[in-house]
Amino acid sequence: GESTEMEIRFNSKKFNGKTYKSVQITSNDPLNPVVDVMIMANIFAPLIVDPPSERVGFTRSLRGETMTKPVAFRTGHIPELELSVGNTRQDLFDVKVVNGVDGDPQLSHLEVTVPADMAPGRHRDVVRVSTNVPERPTVDVEIQAWVVQELTVSPEQVSFRYKKTFKQTVRVAPFKKGTEFKVTGAEIDLPEVNVEVIETLPNAETQIHLSGHPIDKDDPRALDAQGRIKGTLRIFTNLKNTPEIEVPVTYMVRM
Questions:
Q1: Minimal CA–CA distance to 179: which of 203, 146, 144, 208?
Q2: To bridge 179 with a disulfide, which of 53, 83, 123, 174 should be the other Cys (CB 3.0-4.6 Å)?
Q3: Burial call 46-72: b when 16+ CB within 10 Å, e when fewer
Q4: Torsion of CA 62, 65, 66, 67, to 10 degrees
């Protein structure tokens, strides 16, 4: 027969129109241990962004290719929506604004493009979009992309840590099936690591075998690096767009 109060807060920032939410409350009441409390809100959004997460994610793309995705901005609050944009914070992506999409003055697009010269790797950036909507003068859009080379390596980096004997296989394979390639050689700038190239499946997979032993703790290189040894495995291919692939190689010496 007792009672208590519970405060429920709902952040309506990225919602628009009629929205329904449920809060499940569990208690020690033996007759009614679980209670669902329904929340309904009719939210007015002066500016609607699609996707609501205000994030743009690109699937894996091949270096040299371009990909473009739009972010839609709509308002029913003012007669004519106007967006403007500068560069992204790290200047990694190309962005531009298209106002009055399809002749609709209340619809604008932010077009985000992965440029052809983007370096391989995972990239994240942010662009600030300025609007003429007083309630939301700026919108920060997060952008993510993953650019790969014609050939992929696995693992992308090698760490032997404190191992007494080195043994690791780095696999080289094409990003797209049907790509004809050949690994013409490989070398590493760590003399204590041996490199062997084995073409296991032509145009499908080549293996780079690494083997060896760490240097002694009294070695000048170990002393200078305080036991943190770093090097680079360079893999050479016959592909014009991917003539060389670099793989970081590291290990630790107990000092």
A1: 203
A2: 174
A3: ebbbeeeebebebeebbbeeebebebe
A4: -40
Q: What is the mean pLDDT of residues 101-128?
A: 96
DSSP 65: -
Distance from C-alpha of 180 to C-alpha of 220, rounded to nearest angstrom: 43
> What is the per-residue pLDDT for 23?
95
User: Position of tokens 């370096």?
Assistant: 119
Residues in the chain: 255
Picking from 250, 207, 209, the residue whose alpha carbon sits closest to that of residue 232 is: 250
The Cα–Cα gap between 140 and 87 comes to 12
Give the pLDDT of residue 72.
97
228 φ/ψ sector (left φ>0, alpha ψ -120 to 50, else beta): beta
Q: Give this prediction's pTM.
A: 0.66
Q: Give the full edge-to-edge strand order of the sheet including 67-74.
A: 48-50, 67-74, 107-114, 94-99
